[in-house]
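Please check the following.

. . .
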Amino acid sequence: MGVYAFRLPDIGEGVVEGEVVQWHVEVGASVEEDEALIDVMTDKATVTIPSPVSGKVMSTVGNAGEIIAVGTVCIEFEVEGEGNASSSSKPTPIPEAPVKEERAEPTPKAEPKPAPTPSPVVQTPTSTPSSTLSGGNGVGGRALASPAVRQRAKDEGIDLSQVSGSGPAGRISHADIDAHNESGVSRGGIKFSHPGEPAEGTTEIPIVGLRRKIAEQMTKSYTQIPHFSYFEEVDVTDLEALRQWLNANRTADQPKLTYLPFIMQALVKLFREGHHGCNGHYEDEREVLVLHNAVNMGIATTTDRGLYVPVVKNCESRNIWELGSELRRVAGAARDGTATLSDLTGSTFTITSLGRDGGLGATPIINTPEVGILGVHKAIERPVVVDGKITIRRMMNLSSSWDHRVVDGANGAALVQGLKHLLEHPTQIL
């Protein structure tokens, strides 16, 4: 029998270290070649690394949340034959992972403190759904109650339709009114919640994995890039009509279009017609603005595992339907965890859609090393003035942030105004 020492492989794209997300094996377990060993997260993506050999696990290095360097022995196997390391019972010395200036060396993961036991919450009786929805007990929605009960309810400002009756046919008694009052319903039918017991203790949530990567990236972007933001509102009434018409007449192999493919195609047009400086990367160390001919659109996507930015590559070579299809593919892959490294890298400009959450505006943080980002808000119908008259139009707000080192305020504003014009005249986009 021999010992096989497996080193964390080079994942590519200049990655020099990774964070342990999850081990799929434990010491003493037997594994087969190509069986999943460990999930490692890099700045680019989460990668599952398979076993290079069949054997028995002797030792592992790195708990969840710890950083290990490429080339570090992360697991040792007992294998048939000589292996590639000493057959000594002592584990192969493990080189220390390089430590970033702002982070201390990884320490063993502490046992999590038990969360404080929540105070019991007393459930108070409420009106039954049937009585509330029917507008009261009795026939025709009129509550059944004696004159004395009705007079009391009137004196106390109680709506009998909100009281559950315990008598025959739902008749309301004085006891029912007492129970109703105890449930927290005040005069006028306003129900007040009962406060709970004073809370104590805290809950600690370690910031690891993708959440930590996001924190690092956002800190780097916000501290190194002088952001300026620009906001505008857009009348998308005509765009909505065009979108609905296209969706109603699409073929079986064509996706249902959202607003995003139109915005993406409009940005491609603008980048090609005078706003090329907004589709690029600023390299801090070289102090060089690298402009890209290809338009690779990053789409900020919320998933169960955190925020991902899948990329629609070469938007300039795709029509509106192809943009919609590829957008659906990469966003779906990000959400279900099947996105490849290529799907998550290489963006030249990023869009973050806040559609369902609405909001009037935001200050999106630039996805470094890009020089701009666009925030898209929910489209809603509201009254606006058109030709001196108040009318209902579908309006959408846009937010944008720009790297003021290389994008002047006038340039960022001009691009957003150009986007506004195209979205308000959507046939010019296609």
Summary: The radius of gyration is 31 Å. Confidence is low (pLDDT under 50) at residues 87-110, 115-136. Residues 2-79 form a domain with the OB fold (Dihydrolipoamide Acetyltransferase, E2P) fold (CATH 2.40.50.100). The helical segments are 129-134, 147-155, 174-182, 209-224, 237-248, 259-272, 320-336, 409-424.
